[in-house]
Amino acid sequence: MKPRRLGIYVHVPFCLSKCSYCAFVSYPGAVDPHRAERYVDAALKELGTKASMKDACHSGWTLFIGGGTPTTLGSEVLSRLVLGSVSIMREKGWSEPVEASVEANPGTFDAYGASMLVDSGVTRFSIGVQTLVDPELEAIGRIHTAAEAKAAIRAARSAGARSVSMDLMTGLPGQDVVSLARTLDEVSSLEPDHVSCYALTLEEGTPLMKSVQDGKVQLPDEELCADLMEEAQRALEGMGLLRYEISNYARKGHECLHNLGYWSDMPYIGIGTAAHSYDPASSIRSWNTTDPDRYSDLIARGLPAMEGNERLCAKTAMSDALILSLRTSYGASLDEIEQAYGEQFEQDKLDALSWGASVGLVESIPGRKYKLTAKGMMLSNALFTKLV
Amino acid sequence: MEISRIRNFCIIAHIDHGKSTLADRILEITGAMSKRQMTEQVLDKMELERERGITIKLKPVRIECSIFEDKGSYEMNLIDTPGHVDFNYEVSRSLAACEGALLVVDATQGIEAQTLANLYLALDHDLEIVPVVNKIDLPNADPDKVAKEICELIGMDDSEIIRISAKTGKNVEAVLKAIIDKVPAPSGDSSAPLKALIFDSHFDPYKGVMIYIRVMEGSFSTGDRIRIMSNGMEFDIIETGVFTPDMKPTGSLSAGEVGYIAAQIKNMSDARVGDTVTLAKDPASEPLPGYRQVHPMVYTGLYPVENNDYPLLREALEKLKLNDSALVFEPESSAALGFGFRCGFLGLLHMEIVQARLEREYGMEIITTAPSVIYNVKKTDGTVQEVDNPAELPDVSEIEEIEEPIVRLSVLTPSEYIGAVMTLAIDRRGTYKDMNFLSPQRVSMQFEIPLAEILYDFFDKLKSKTRGYASMDYELKEYRPARLVKLDVLVNDRPLDALSSIVHSESAQFRGRLLVQKLRKIIPRQMFDVPIQAAVGAKIIARETVKAMRKDVLAKCYGGDISRKRKLLEKQKEGKKRLKQVGSVEIPQEAFMAVLSTEEEEE
Q1: CA–CA dist A96, A94 (Å, integer)
Q2: pTM for this entry
């Protein structure tokens, strides 16, 4: 088996306030400094337990601190988390991470914090911009303005981070082709290295879902949503960003290595609340408790914070690997996945891929490889529902 | 038991008027079942029956009644009857096996059309009627008014009407007393040659066909050789007994009694319901008068969602048929849906029940095409063809005339809704015939109307236009010529035979437009534009387009999302299972039923 890159994901479950569309595990409100310290202590302790010694099965590693909003911890505490993680890994024989990403919210991020984090080893910032139209930001409950978002990008840039990424969203309440074009024009002038562009998904139990159900908020209709996605794609590619995954665009060399790991069946260790771990070698997936105080308690008492796990059968693991790799522009190699699991794909999967090729969702490449077409990137579920 | 101490009776009631509850209470009071043994509604055995609160298939039960010290012990055989119009034929079977009938009417609702029809059936059979007004415990009950209605209807005195609450048990003993006092004992001679009427049967995988019989004359025992009078086939009795309501062997039965026979009969068709059983060694000379043969009124196509499941569907239908002699089916194929079966049903409820049983008991995923009646098509070459599938209607050039079934429809409604009912029936090509007032507030209206027009949502519409108060009943009157045409549907430029329907030529334009509008909403977006057209012959009369789906994608998918996203995809896949792949278009079940919609939906 080829050496695999290890991904380390640390979840920070705190946010100043929760955005109306968000269904992720996060606890809104100002973070008590003591609670923040305790959480970081626990995370580092968990990493020390979960990370193994560097061996020949693994090549390098990536670090990704996500949330929630990692920057609510404050720059000092967050820097300690980065430094501490690198030093733990170093003790276990690993060299510097090939990429260290931190997610930032423009409302809790400034030049001072950016520099401190870069000095601690952060190479990449992913900044939650969503849109650069203030009423749209307000409509989804973001705590920052467009001006603050632009300032955050500049701060990240001037701190000397290797890559600066921003998250954008399409399909927001009140968004139309004109307002999206305005956002994209401004994005262009900010020259990000990377953009993640997500179509808004209404999640169960979110305040936005309720507002929509109650008729207080209207979302763009299906046609407009598709127009917005296509407009975003056109503009981002026009800026020289390549669509390397359904929702991700990057200048060459600035693709997110950590996230690529998820889509190419690499192992990852999840640290912190609700974080997921997966090891393709054993096909075991596990996840932690969602409660931060319970999490800190368990770890402090030397107990695992795992809440559940599942062992995937080869069939499921292979179908996950196939679907995930198809999300990327590199596509899926059936041979590689079959070799990794020592089993052949079932006929129904092969039939589904042939069907996908016949209706223009995937392109078949010599050597038993497939990749999504532009149409397939918009309609991937039509194929994926046949591959699960 | 002496024949003079036997009472055979059935219960006539409308759905929800408390028939099953009363039966349960009788079992409880006579000690046939202790309270602890009782699950609610003992005689409704099928899960489906429990769920819907209706009785479809009758279950006989024998009750020993010795609660009246001054009267001694009596043997009562209760034959439960279904209360839905689709199952009318089962009612007449029950009636033929009894000497009396309890007429149960809800004190809050009054008499309903179905009950009235069954009451007349019972009177035709010379049954003694014991009228019962139920649910007197309810706050909105008006027992006196309902009693008056009954009195006027069957010319009884108010003192004869028993007012009860089957739910609380109040006055139920009076019902038992009336059965003993009023219902005559059976009159058969147990030493005469055997004549036993088959009134039902079910299939037992170990004992073969179990026939349910009422012994009219003579007697028999286990080991006797019986003969089925219509076909002369002979079988040895391996078990005989009574219903308690579970089957309990007794070794013999004689005139007046109700019970069952197991004789290793392999096919239901060898011992049909309505036939007469006699003894091989001393046969009766004449059989009992039989029942009319049951004819399906409604036909639909049943197709497996997965074409490969065709043999499984056949097997499931064969098994269902063992316990449902009214179900008929034969193989058919559709260019759009592949191989399936044309099935005949007594009515729409019967169809729904078969469909639900196939899905639940046999795990089948099926597509049902729109129900159709049988048309008589007179062809130009002088022949007549029966058409129960619109797709098989001959070409217009070969048709001389089409005849459709007309039913006599009777509607019972509060008089304030006369206008609404009239409008509804006339809109459906009905002709008003007659009207009788049962009381100043309640009226019975008669129409003649094409069966095809009342097949689908007529009853729902009737209910909604009369705030739920009207009830209806119908029976076939005759076939009449009508100006009918075939309305075809093209999906993605291909004719979809299973969506064809036969409509009146004057409404073709309207129905066609309505249908394609409905289909546009029902057929999910595909990856390309799908045109939907309605056509009469070569002429396109309406057109809509299902616009292509432009996005169907999960935005975020990182480490923590993978399991959840997988579940979402699996859920989406599960949803697609209910879709039938027709050519390159996926079509949901509702599409096939849309053919019958007659009204624009309220948006």
Answers
A1: 7
A2: 0.69
